């Protein structure tokens, strides 16, 4: 997925190598010449289909795909397994299939499956094999996009953070020896698990992507691309078609790989220039089917901006135009889902004056289906267009339940910066060093880092604190009293400190999501100097920092809940509306008689993270907007009591229906467009 502004046939490679292994001299050259066309994809519609022909290939004369020797085109939809809970996979896929789609497009997220060096996860939401097997059962052909870089508005574009822990100077997405070594290790873990699903092995994976929109990356390293092609084909073994995807512009050639089928991507904003787009693709690849691998029916949204919406009729009309060229197409996203936990990424556009911008937790994307997997007006319009070119299956869909469970009162239970909070929620031993340690240096994926040092005597009152290269947001305390906030997004890197405030400077730094597009080395923490202004106009560097890690992982929250004593906080602390002494964890529970999807309405709160039944729903920031509610999947809930934990960084809300305690509300309707930053009125509970 490209996060650039919207304005803005390799299946046979291994076959050729096999045929020529035993040859030599002039005979070798002759055999290569005769077999290249057959192995990359059928070079002529007159070619005879034999048992050696790949089941999915290309007719370069008729400019079409061939599936088992017959002309074929796909209308696909993107759905990323890691953006829905496993128990929801089948219902989401069935809803997609009911629209007439005959193919599914999905990424594989390296960081999800390999969260730490040498550690692998293939269970639950990471059970990609189960997901693909369900997709096959629901009658989809599959377009697999294993990356290893995927963008997808995911933290670091799906690349594991520990690459920068292990190799601080690594140059990802290049022929860097350390990078290709780690990709090789990763593919050796991933690819054998998927080989039985390739169409040449009896499965339904018809295409496998090599890299992802590489032409948009600065490196333009064809040695790397050729290596990755060969490494991918080592496992695909001519049992599916290798392909690339690139934005249609003057850099497309940087992403083209010899003997790999090229496709492009564009949304409704560029449909008026579709002829020029196809022309650019034809200049790169003269023959073969036309493919838009990412047709955008919606778009991504960042915090503190208007939610991105796309008109459904315009989407349907543009889709009809693409299909009129007998092109194949993938709708990105057909179902968007949710960036649960800390998985949402960020973008950076210095040329456009935007700078750093973090992605919201919802990946609703104004997609064809909504965040909870529901049918929309856009879905019906798109389905009508698909029905003009593909047969619509007879599938009856059950409407989803969206329930409001009402008000949930919360009790302030733990101060993060207190001795008890540090003992419960920090991880590892604090590190003392001359400079603050980064998230990557302490092998931390996300959450918070606390940096502390002793303030020197000030010769100015006030003096100016300056923090260079902050990534991404810092709450500044002196002796645990909040004195201000610094922000990469707002480009605020300095604030005044006064004499007499205290002796210990504390910077609580939040990782708001690593950049996922274009850049791929967005390490987190503080990387520049931290200084205080001197009377003579110079700056005094502050050194000797203690770094304490708060990864805020689900297991840590669960362990704290299991062990915590039922001790109330100091009333003065508990009564705070603005959290002057640091983040506070609030706990509560709500009763469920009937299970359904619901939405955690965070209006009136500040910024933080929410956990339901121990599951990290993701970041909330209603003060920033536009997203006000967090989606709570029905699969998380149970009949009876359900737990809720908020780790709030800035301010709590005590105004829900006149509640004396901090409170939130569980609604039946999502608010993604920032309609209200005020506390909602209580709604009647649905049963």
UniProtKB/TrEMBL annotation:
Transmembrane segments: 21-43
SUPFAM superfamilies tied to this protein: (Trans)glycosidases (SSF51445), Galactose-binding domain-like (SSF49785)
PANTHER family tied to this protein: BETA-GALACTOSIDASE RELATED (PTHR23421)
UniProt cross-references to Pfam families, sorted A to Z: BetaGal_ABD_1, BetaGal_gal-bd, Glyco_hydro_35
Sequence similarity: Belongs to the glycosyl hydrolase 35 family.
Keywords of this entry: Glycoprotein, Glycosidase, Hydrolase, Membrane, Signal, Transmembrane, Transmembrane helix
UniProt KW Signal keyword: yes
Keyword Transmembrane helix in record: yes
GO terms under biological process: carbohydrate metabolic process
Domain Glycoside hydrolase 35 catalytic, chain residue ranges per copy: 64-388
Domain of life from the UniProt record: Eukaryota
Designated name of the protein: Beta-galactosidase
